[in-house]
Design brief:
83% of the residues lie in helices and 0% in strands. By secondary structure, it is mainly α. The radius of gyration is 22 Å and the shape is elongated. The termini are far apart.
């Protein structure tokens, strides 16, 4: 038993303490968080734009849809279908080695790739939230002389956000875990750091279980924060 714990300590020392390798994990974790936040921002912006376009098309009778709306709605449908129908890793490979093969801005490529991927899922989440709002509210806003965009921005979307917050929270958590895929384009994130250290120490157990624990802790923190936010929103609704 003593030999087992000695071996475990040696693996821990080589994987985290020796040569200040714990700092490399922190740096990799910082990259993962940066990619997550950047991709989430892009995903939300894309998601809102696509959700508004598709909702506008759904709520407009076919014979009253303009040419521009039909074109935009068609583009949005193709985008959502293609992005949701292909693996994220393949999308990263295409972005990293085809579209931006001459670029060395790996963080930018990762943020853009994951953001575009997230946008397709966020769009459907937001669209479902918008469709859950009583259509009478849109009609009431328009009857007051407000434009479609104004009613959507000031009345519909704020209410929809409350309804879809749990789903958006799940998307954030999924996005954070999916940052581990950026290793395929060479970005040194948390997972890539563990792979590099494993290549130097020839110890796989400690680095990989270590980053698994890090991912789990971050996800648990995010889950707790989202739970607090949901409870506060519910309390504000009751007031």
């Amino acid at each position: 038993m003593a030999a087992f714990f000695d071996d475990l300590y040696n693996q821990f020392y080589q994987s985290f303490i020796e040569a200040d390798r714990w700092m490399k994990y922190l740096k990799g974790l910082g990259v993962s968080c940066l990619v997550t936040l950047g991709a989430l921002a892009i995903g939300i912006i894309l998601g809102i734009l696509i959700a508004v376009i598709r909702t506008k098309s759904d709520q407009t009778p076919k014979n009253k849809r303009g040419v521009l709306l039909k074109i935009l709605n068609g583009i949005c449908k193709v985008y959502v279908t293609v992005i949701r129908g292909t693996p994220m890793m393949v999308q990263l490979l295409i972005m990293g080695f085809v579209f931006f093969k001459a670029s060395r801005n790996l963080i930018g490529i990762a943020i853009l790739s994951l953001g575009i991927n997230s946008g397709a899922y966020v769009a459907e989440i937001i669209r479902s939230g918008i469709m859950s709002i009583d259509p009478g509210q849109m009609e009431a806003g328009r009857s007051l002389g407000l434009g479609y965009g104004t009613v959507m921005k000031s009345v519909i979307i704020p209410q929809a956000i409350k309804n879809i917050l749990p789903a958006l929270g799940n998307e954030l958590i999924t996005l954070f875990k999916d940052t581990s895929l950026v290793t395929v384009i060479g970005l040194v994130d948390l997972t890539k750091t563990a792979i590099q250290i494993q290549g130097k120490t020839y110890q796989a157990f400690m680095p990989f279980f270590g980053i698994a624990a890090m991912y789990l802790i971050i996800v648990m923190i995010l889950t707790s924060l989202l739970g607090i936010l949901e409870r506060r929103l519910r309390r504000s609704d009751r007031k």
